[in-house]
């Protein structure tokens, strides 16, 4: 199938922005970011001048509305971005679209766009509704796809970094190296694609130096690459122009790439914007340094997530999660003296037990921090492909939540969920569909006062 030559090419980018679970964030708006990264990549490529791009984002229950809007745009190519919350709806839209326009090229990307996910029983066969999957960073790949002279099979096979469905399995094209110079990635803020007044998203590096089985945050490859201080400073200034009420750091951890962290600190010293807003980030507790604590004091208002998962070293080892209990507690207390922190633990983690989980919860509640519990998910690039056979994981293929596994019967999972809801609400916390929050019990002193400075 050849692209038209009588009019500008058209690309429809389709996503589903979720509503906050249990309305946790109140009035804050969290716009979709990944799809706008792709949009910015298309706009930022001089070889694609004149390309028309439409972003289509509706409600989960408005599948016909998605279909009508896509068809009305008359695209030459459709890209879907999928996450856990959006995958079932987006796949159904793609199926309906394929029935209406059988030869319209369809590509999927995003954290849930993985061949192992599409092989799950509700979502197969993938070759019936999509042409290609991007199983990684998509900014440069979408540029190559948009430049193809046609969308015949041989054209798809010429693009490095794609996974192509067939009737008998999957075909992977030539491997594409990860983006070495992250500053080449176009900013949705610089292109005016992000909504005014929405929460801002910041990246300072990509990937993760860890490889925990329950987490799909990223790959160990290229984790030393970082966005420059100039790039980050430009983002912060754009956040100010967009009047962002909060900045969410998308990195695996504030302190997991020392070069990226130092670039962020330099950028904020130039801009000062983080002192004007709320800063959310994850931080890895066992490698907290004084420079991290000093940065947090410099910016003032922050909320840091601290991944604890379990207090049982044996459980953490099963999941390839490094643990250092003495340093962990010392880091938690040092962080709690500086800012608001949230200890994050996981219920129904394979290899754990309800008894072990509640010991972890009680210990977490004894520390000077908010506590959040997440129901364990079977995520692509994580437990979906990196589980251990002996864990016998059974899960809901729509929500990806674990139903039962080694150490957890279905009844134990249900009882734990009920008890968590009861405890969190009794403590003045909140309960969502997949999480339970417990507020901290004491006021926070100054870090410098606590350190005698």
From TrEMBL:
The keyword Transmembrane helix does not apply. Its cofactor is [4Fe-4S] cluster. Pfam families: B12-binding, Radical_SAM. Residues 10-156 form the B12-binding domain. InterPro entries: BchE-like, Cobalamin-bd, Cobalamin-bd_sf, Elp3/MiaA/NifB-like_rSAM, rSAM, rSAM_horseshoe, rSAM_sf. Residues 194-426 form the Radical SAM core domain. Keywords: Iron, Iron-sulfur, Metal-binding, S-adenosyl-L-methionine. The keyword GTP-binding does not apply. This is Radical SAM protein. It comes from Methylobacterium thuringiense.
